[in-house]
Specification:
alpha+beta, 21% strand
């Protein structure tokens, strides 16, 4: 179609070109590397693998070898170089038109090259009070090269130390790089020159030369200098005003001295339930004169004093001021050097005594004035008596029997009572910690004495539960005998003002007689967990403390040690053999020595400590653990060994022979190996370790590989208890090492002295 020049593109203004006979539409999609597929072929264009047209006038770039090592599986670039950035330091010169002596300004920048996607980001570090909008100059993007290579982007080959690079009509000169960038380029075969110095900034040099240097320093300070130096720095003192009169008392005050302008204010601290209310300001902020007595006369404080007036009205009259300051007086104000502990300040006729100060005030006076004594002064006795009387513990009314004691106490403390709160920290720490004792009932009925009970004490909330063990043909059903709850100690006044006392852990021990809800029980035994817990916490259970028990026995044998050894020495043993006695024999000897001063709990603790039945725990069997590992893999149909190898290579790219246990646990969790925590712990015990406690990688891979050398089958077992011993051998204390017991008594020296 033909158009009439100067006419709009409207119907009727176009004409058909009669000379044109071919109306085929040109193809633009049939193109292979710049070569058209139709007959009208154009000049072929060079296209790089990234799809960019390459200018024949621009030399082709050389791509360095920065791929990953060929040892492991090949990873994409965005994974291999994730979070890896090359950082270069540089600058560019910005032309200045308004400064005559400085034609340009040197601006420092940091150029970051992201290896994962070949993008570049240019940022300028912010300088305080520079007057320039700084920050990100070039956002993260791929930057094209300048002409004639505008079809290409800046690559890693274009960035190096002591080179110029143009980014969007601005030329940057690179002066240095960080250590990671230097090592990375050297490994890629690119030599990195030494860093160069930044050029001097003419603007800064001009400012340095323009500073006026005085020949001699002056002591003159700017009026605003004190505010800038001591802004928000306050000296704080505790003080009081003794206003004891017929209706007065001691006022507790707090003085704040502001170093920025040498002003002070005083606030009053009202005690609780003092009857005072309202503003606490005792002295408004300002300079405090040392001799403040009443109001000042005119002209004493004003900056300008009018002496007389010449002429008639205010508009046409003439005023004469007192330029000599005849009536003006110089007032002395309190400063920081006048404030000290024990000083009495005259606050407009009121004597305020400074008693103590805070830590900042102490450090200030220690550095400036060299003071070291900051001992606080005591308050007047009258004031202390008032505080003690107000802080005295409130006497609550007696308990009326309704609800628990804590509920009644809450009704007396506040108008809107709240439910009693327990010790949450104790609950979280000691949750599921239960002490269990075997008990017998003490009763006048013979059948009740034959019943067997289990007393459970919950350490998390100090509650007790009693369970009866059912026996066949006993006539008792068994089950819960007493529901879980706190139990009061016997022989307490119920309706009193004091809080009642409940059973605590130290009240329960073997041989104790307890009164639980009007039922008397004798604790005759305890389970192994209870005995171990009591022996592990001797401060809470003094009857399970071996040191206290041995001290008691030592004091009882101090004057009768020789007769005790000769009487209870086991017979039939030679001196080379270890002398062993039974639990019953030692118990009989200790009861004969101490009588009722020793309990069954102490005897059991002593026998367990000096037990001769201790054996070292057996070690884990490697083949048994490996069979259990393979059994779990086959049961859960886990078959992802290739993913496990790839994950290990990703975690350990340097192919270290040993890795830590925490890293190996993360690998097991990430690959979803069907192992429990106990089974993983058992596997770590049998794997090969180095001196640092790390596990061998090859040993672990062969240990879990079912296809290579499968392990023998084993029946399913409980991995938490049966696979490997989790606790050492529990000694029962049936046999006691007599030699060790006598040696720990430490009374052999007295025996030797008596024999000599």
């Amino acid at each position: 179609m033909l158009r009439i020049p100067g006419m709009p593109l409207l119907p009727g203004t176009q004409f058909r070109d009669l000379t044109k006979s071919n109306f085929a539409k040109s193809q633009s999609l049939l193109n292979y590397y710049g070569i058209g597929m139709l007959s009208d072929r154009e000049v072929p264009k060079l296209v790089d693998p990234r799809g960019m047209i390459v200018d024949p006038n621009c030399p082709p770039p050389e791509i360095p070898s920065i791929d990953l090592p060929k040892a492991g599986p090949k990873l994409p670039t965005w994974v291999a170089y994730d979070k890896q950035v090359l950082c270069f330091d540089g600058y560019f010169k910005e032309t200045l038109q308004e400064v005559y002596h400085a034609p340009y300004l040197v601006r420092k920048v940091k150029i970051c090259y992201f290896l994962e996607d070949d993008t570049i980001q240019v940022t300028e570090p912010k300088v305080e009070n520079s007057g320039i909008t700084q920050g990100c100059l070039v956002h993260k993007q791929r930057v094209p090269k300048p002409a004639p290579c505008e079809n290409e982007c800046i690559s890693i080959l274009d960035l190096n130390v002591n080179t110029n690079i143009q980014i969007f009509d601005r030329v940057y000169h690179i002066t240095g790089c960080d250590l990671f960038t230097r090592h990375f380029l050297n490994r890629a075969g690119i030599p990195v020159p030494d860093p160069v110095d930044m050029p001097l900034d003419p603007t800064i040099e001009h400012r340095k030369r323009s500073v006026i240097k005085h020949s001699a320093p002056t002591n003159r300070k700017h009026a605003f200098a004190q505010f800038l130096q001591f802004d928000r720095k306050v000296l704080r003192f505790k003080c009081y005003w003794d206003d004891r009169s017929e209706f007065g008392d001691v006022r507790n005050l707090e003085l704040c001295y502001y170093l920025s302008d040498d002003t002070m204010d005083i606030k009053e601290i009202f005690p609780v339930n003092s009857g005072r209310d309202g503003p606490t300001t005792f002295l408004k902020r300002g300079k405090l004169p040392k001799d403040g007595q009443g109001l000042h006369l005119p002209g004493e404080q004003t900056e300008m004093t009018i002496l007389n007036v010449l002429g008639g009205g205010l508009r046409t009259g003439r005023y004469i001021t007192d330029i000599l300051g005849t009536g003006k007086k110089d007032f002395a104000f309190y400063t920081d050097k006048d404030l000290q502990i024990g000083v009495v300040l005259n606050v407009y006729g009121r004597n305020v005594v400074l008693t103590s100060c805070d830590s900042f005030t102490m450090e200030y006076y220690r550095k400036k004035y060299g003071l070291e004594d900051f001992s606080p002064l005591p308050l007047p006795n009258h004031y202390e008596d008032q505080i003690a009387q107000r802080m005295r513990e409130r006497q609550l009314p007696p308990y009326n029997g309704w609800g628990s004691y804590e509920d009644s106490e809450g009704n007396c403390i506040s108008v809107e009572p709240k439910p009693p709160q327990g010790d949450f920290k104790k609950f979280v720490t000691l949750d599921k910690f239960i002490l269990r004792f075997g008990a017998k009932m003490i009763s006048t009925i013979r059948e009740n004495c034959e019943r067997v009970f289990v007393v459970s004490y919950y350490l998390s909330d100090d509650t007790i539960q009693i369970f009866e063990v059912a026996e066949r043909n006993s006539g008792f059903l068994g089950g819960t005998f007493l529901k879980r709850g706190r139990i009061l100690l016997p022989n307490q006044e119920k309706f009193s003002c004091k809080r009642p006392e409940y059973y605590r852990p130290h009240h329960l021990y073997i041989g104790a007689t307890v009164n639980l809800k009007d039922h008397i029980f004798s604790l005759v035994s305890a389970d192994e967990y209870t005995l171990i817990y009591m022996e592990s916490h001797p401060f809470e259970f003094p009857l399970a403390d071996v040191q206290i028990i041995m001290h008691k026995i030592r004091e009882a044998l101090r004057h009768n040690y020789k007769n005790f050894i000769e009487k209870h020495l086991p017979e039939g043993f030679s001196e080379s053999e270890t002398k062993l006695i039974s639990y019953e024999t030692l118990k009989k000897n200790l009861i004969e020595l101490l009588g009722n001063n020793i309990t069954d709990q102490e005897i059991i603790t002593l026998c367990r400590f000096y037990s001769a039945e201790q054996k070292p725990p057996s070690s884990c069997n490697r083949e048994t653990v490996r069979s259990a590992i393979h059994l779990e893999i086959r049961r859960n149909l886990w078959d992802d060994m290739d993913h496990l190898k790839e994950h290990v290579h990703h975690i350990n790219p340097s192919h270290k022979s040993f890795i830590s246990e925490s890293t190996l646990r993360s690998i097991i969790t990430g690959c979803r190996l069907p192992f429990t925590t106990e089974l993983i712990d058992d596997m770590f015990k049998v794997l090969n370790h180095n001196d640092m406690g790390e596990i061998e990688v090859c040993d672990f891979m062969s240990f879990v590989d079912v296809s290579c050398n499968p392990a023998s089958d084993i029946p399913p077992i409980n991995y938490a208890f049966e696979l490997c011993p989790k606790i050492p051998f529990l000694h029962k204390g049936r046999l006691v090492n007599w030699d060790c017991f006598v040696q720990h008594l430490g009374l052999e020296k007295e025996l030797i002295e008596e024999s000599n």
